[in-house]
Amino acid sequence: DQQVKQNSPSLSVQEGRISILNCDYTNSMFDYFLWYKKYPAEGPTFLISISSIKDKNEDGRFTVFLNKSAKHLSLHIVPSQPGDSAVYFCAASDLNAGNMLTFGGGTRLMVKP
Amino acid sequence: DTAVSQTPKYLVTQMGNDKSIKCEQNLGHDTMYWYKQDSKKFLKIMFSYNNKELIINETVPNRFSPKSPDKAHLNLHINSLELGDSAVYFCASSQLGGADSDTQYFGPGTRLTVL
Predict the structure, then answer these.
(1) What is the pLDDT of residues A61-100, one digit of tens each?
(2) In chain B, what residues touch A43 (CB-CB under 8 Å)?
(3) Cβ contact, residue pair A103, B53, below 8 Å
């Protein structure tokens, strides 16, 4: 029973273009959402987050959009750079459940020079 | 200056052994976690722990036990290791009630291989 899903296992984008990574969730109790970036043999690195009371949060080249009614969030990276190539994990938490994160399966982003 | 560190990075052991993985955080956080990344690359929560409460994911076998000697450490003990325990284990920490209280910071992971 996957409560957080990333339906695209991989995405390939040209350098300078926009990368859009998508994530869907089923648990309406989730109230905080995060994106992590992961390189091989390293731990996930926090990128950006959004509270359920907002619909957009921006940090530099990264913007996260939340559509609560659709239970959908997306991460936009613009412009994409080769160094952005990594696996991106969407995660969600329910503050009432001990702040434990539920992760999606990840999307491998490849940015081509 | 490492924020969340784990030792060892790699651990190879025989079935039936007991092993521990250590985790330390120097962020001053009050809550620590253990996650397991399985062969399908899914990251799943195992435990959430602060000095008040241990929350266990109900799917975790009782052969796994977290032990916290102090606020900066949360070690993972595994008894009677099985082949299916082979995975990468990540430690994480956060500060409940802080400015970014829901943001967890992860260690580099420990790859456990059970033969």
Answers:
(1) 999 999 999 999 999 999 999 999 999 999 998 877 667 8
(2) 4, 90, 92, 106-109
(3) no
